[in-house]
Design goal:
This protein is of the alpha/beta class and about 250 residues long. It has a single domain, classed as Metallo-dependent phosphatases (Purple Acid Phosphatase, chain A, domain 2, 4-Layer Sandwich), CATH 3.60.21. It contains 6 helices and 13 strands. The chain has a 6-stranded mixed beta sheet with strand order 4-3-2-1-10-13. A 5-stranded mixed beta sheet has the order 5-6-7-9-8, with no helix packed on it. Strands 11-12 form a two-stranded antiparallel sheet. Strand 5 and strand 6 form a beta hairpin. It is globular and about 45 Å long. It starts with a strand and ends with a strand. Bound molecules: manganese (II) ion.
Amino acid sequence: MPFFIAIPDVQGEISQLEALIAKIEGRYDLGADEQSGDHRHGDDDHMSARKPKAQLIFLGDLIDRGEDSDATIEYVQALKQRWPHTQLIWGNHELQTLALSRGSDERGLTTPLRPGVLEFLRDEFVPWVETPSLLFCHGSPAADDTVLDPRDQKLISQIACNYAGLTEGWRGKFIVRGHTAGTQPARLGLTYFLDCNAADYEGTLIASVFRDLTIHELADGRRRALQEPRQSFPHEVSFNITPPWPLCEILVSR
Ligand SMILES: [Mn+2]
C-alpha cells in the first residue's frame, strides 16, 4: 500500500465520519492491491485505477461521547465489508466495553449496544498496526516495551491507555496515535498525536495520510527512519508537509 490513512478517535461522531469517508473515497482507492486480483468495482475500475491506493486505519475509540455510537459501529461494520483491508485498532473505550461485558467493575460506559457489537469489538479489532517505518496505535507503548506481543493482554490495555507515551518514536518507527486530544494534530519528536476532539463543539474529525519511509540500520544495530536533519521541532504540524516526513496530507470532516 503506498498510503495509510489514519482516523483517530471518532467518539460516535457519525455525521463527521460519513463526510470524512466521502472525501477520502473521492481521492483514494481503499481496495486491495492489484496483485491480489481483487476487483469489486466493475465499471468504476478505470476510475479507481487513477486514484492512489490507500489502507484505512482507525486508531481506536470509535464509540462513546458523541452523536451516535450505535450508528457509528453500524457504519464502520459496513465500511469494513466494503473495504476489507480497513484496520480497526482497540481504544480504551472498546476495551472498557469488552471488560464490562465480562463483568468487570469498571464504570463509565454510556452507550447501549446492539446484538453482535461485542463480537465485532472483540474479533475485528487489533491492538496496533506496524509497517516498516510506522506504528499505528491508540496510545503508545512504553520505552522498555522492546517486543510488542499481541497475546499480552496487559500490554494491549497499556498501549490503549497510555496518554503520554514516547515522543521519540518506537524502535526507530514513527508512532501515529490517538487518545490524547489537542486543538490541532501535533507532532512531538517522532510521534504524531492526531485526536482533535471530534465530539467537542470546536473539535474536528480528521484523517491523516501517511506513507512508509525507508528505515536505516545504524552502526549500533538500532534502526531509524530516514528523515530530515533535526531542526527545532514545532509542536504543531503545518498543513504543508515537506518530504521526507511520512505525513502527506490531512483531510478534515468540517
Ligand atoms: Mn482513548
